[in-house]
Amino acid sequence: MVLDAELARFIASPVMIIIGTRDTHNRAAIARGAGATVVKGSGMVEVIVSEWQWPDCIANIHATGHIAATFVRPSDYVAYQLKGRGTLRTAAEEDIRLSRRYVDDIVDTLGGLGVEPQLAAPWIVNAKAAVIRFDVEDVYLQTPGPGAGALLRGVA
After folding, report:
1. Is the Cα dihedral 92, 94, 95, 101 positive or negative?
2. InterPro entries from the xrefs (predicted)?
3. Which of 35, 38, 74, 155 could form a disulfide with 48 if both were Cys (CB 3.0 to 4.6 A apart)?
4. Domains: count for the chain
């Protein structure tokens, strides 16, 4: 599913990134992303994750590939959840640069909302960065309110 430009910009903006995965016994593990991008024209999303901080999430991607990535703008809680199947790769220098920019931007964004940088630091880690690249199969609106959980149509 090719994502539209507006959703692609949202995903790449300073939003909180929460990743859900599952193992072969359907046991869940979570992670926080440290940056994301949409691969133009492909329907693929890449999320940077700390392999050091989130080893269970990484193991689950290796085992099943199933991922649900939720992107939430902290200023108004506009949120989208993307589901699909992914693979892992080691982060390249370009990914590390993207992640550093993301960390700086999200810390600034949260700071503007009153969250002190030292409080956000444990959430947003890119040590031993890995990249989860996944094909988007479903997109859901997750903004709190009457439309939350709706499968979005017309995104492709």
Report:
1. positive
2. Split_barrel_FMN-bd
3. 35
4. 1
